[in-house]
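Appendix C reproduces, verbatim, an entry submitted by the partner laboratory led by Prof. M.T., so that reviewers can inspect both the input and the predicted structure.
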Amino acid sequence: MDNIINLQKKIVPELSELLVLRYQVLRQVSHESPIGRRALANRLGLSERVLRAQVDFLKNCGLLNFSPLGMYVTDEGEEILKELADYVRKLQDLSSLENLLSEKLNIARVVIIPGDCDQEDVVKREIGRAAAGILINLLSDGEEHIVAVSGGTTMAALAANVSGSAPKTVVVPARGGLGDNVEDQANTIASVLARKFGARYKQLYVPDGVSEEILNSILAEDTTVKSVVEIIRNADILVHGMGRADTMARRRGLAPDILQKLEKEGAVGEAIGQYCSLDGKVVYVTNNAGLMVNDLMHIRKVIGIGGGKSKAAAILAVIRASRQDILITDEAAAKDITKIITEEL
């Protein structure tokens, strides 16, 4: 396939651009169907005239269809879209970037989605879809598993794309609740995943960031919470998001003195309550009944997901501060991570 792609780039480079454009059209419609032509043109930053030619072509190929409510991708289109995802990665030379980051970051597998989820929300959904596929594959062995999941919008995208059967699996939140957006919280994502897998799940009703005194009191007096915490700390698979330290600190409502400490010590990234600097030093950890930094060493498979150019330094900091087996990110973050590493040399 690589030879074919190289020939295509040299002889008909315009064909590569057209293929990527049609892939983007299919991908956007797949995630937002039914969608009208004007709304789709706005999402993709195209004129309606240019878009019309592409959707008409895709319709004639049997990949798109129209209804009174808008466009949607046909079953054949969905199948081709899955195959195109890998082809487009190779076409844009993202496979080489995946291998480079895998080597530089000492991560067994890196998956890069085309685009920038800071600019296109559909890219975040594609990261979630890719993560869902990897998780489904890990659970397909029919063995017993405990899957711990964090919260966040990218994790919610993972939950939305999961399907399959894993009745021997238990899904648990990696940590307690955070913020007011219930659908993005770890408890909700754990329950959605479990329902789609036909699996069991446990909930952790302890807010993230409570004082150590309150946390110890809860664990001493509430046997239900204590038993859930024991299950969480025996997880063999962890799927977690990665965020900017400043954004997550504001969401958690950390005290002014802690915010000053984070800024002073150069915290740029955050994952499962740990705030870390670009060189991989953990500078602060929030109290929680769930997973802590040290617990990651005992988990068989750790999967980190997150993207966007604005999160590049945050993702790199988290990777350096903790063990990651699989990274799923986007093109913009991957290229910026590479740039940061190169500039450090």
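The chain has a mean pLDDT of 88. Additional entries are available on request from the coordinating office.
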